[in-house]
Amino acid sequence: MAADERRLRVAVLGAGLIGLDLAEKASRSAELELALVAGRSRDSLGLHRAADMGYATSPDGIAAVLAAGPLDVVFDATNADSHAEHWAALRGTGTALIDLTPTGVGKVIVPTVNGAQAPAHQHLNLVSCGGQAAIPLLHAISQRCAPSYIELVSTGASASAGRATRLNLDQYIATTSAAIRTFTGTRDAKVMVNLSPARPEPPFRVAMTLLADGIRPAPVRTTIAAAADAVRAYAPGFKVTSLVVDAGRIALAVEVTATGGRLPRHAGSVDIINGAAVLLAEQYAAAR
What we know:
- This protein is α/β, with parallel strands linked by helices.
- The protein is built from ten helices and twelve strands.
- Helix 1 (about 15-30) runs parallel beside helix 2 (about 45-50) and helix 1 crosses helix 10 (about 270-285).
- The radius of gyration is 19 Å and the shape is globular.
């Protein structure tokens, strides 16, 4: 295979629910070659599962990733506190780092909004699962009106939120709020998060409320439908479940269910951000 036709060599940092699903998605891609899944403990159940799935694994974290080089792309599915160390280690290597932790560091990318910019940057940030579910619609709406206030409430099954997710909830809220302001031009944005212990586990749901003057219902509805269709290209379980457009107010909700692979259906939060991450890695391949 010619050098410019080879698949991109990628690695996954983190062996939790997000990391394992990332590994599976990357291994199914025709443009990517999964070289390594790296964790930080020999006793990690996730690493044992990754090995059982046939992937090369290591408990040596970022050191193992550096040793496995040259790599084209690394997915960071660890936690916000560790990400700075990972970026410092990879910055001088030329390897692209796609950050799935809510650090807000790096070029913030939402595929259907500014995904075309991704190949020009070495360090990408995917905001949060709630950001990936909401911002495509919020950005589209902001092209039709100028929201003065946006409120977002994410609700996910407790079973789909691992330790790192729980530890990073403050960062999740801050990073998602900042990204909403950036992509919509709205100065006042509020984000809330609920982890539901309900059984059966509920699907991942994001409810949004926008206040704005000059709302035209028909164009807004058409714009939302088109934005949702674009997201479904990499997150097939994404759907708008409610939409109310009044004078001065828009209220909508989306649900994301995981489709295919090993994820339970309620883990739509994982499915949408991982689908976005793999899509961006494939865009690196296409750009090359």
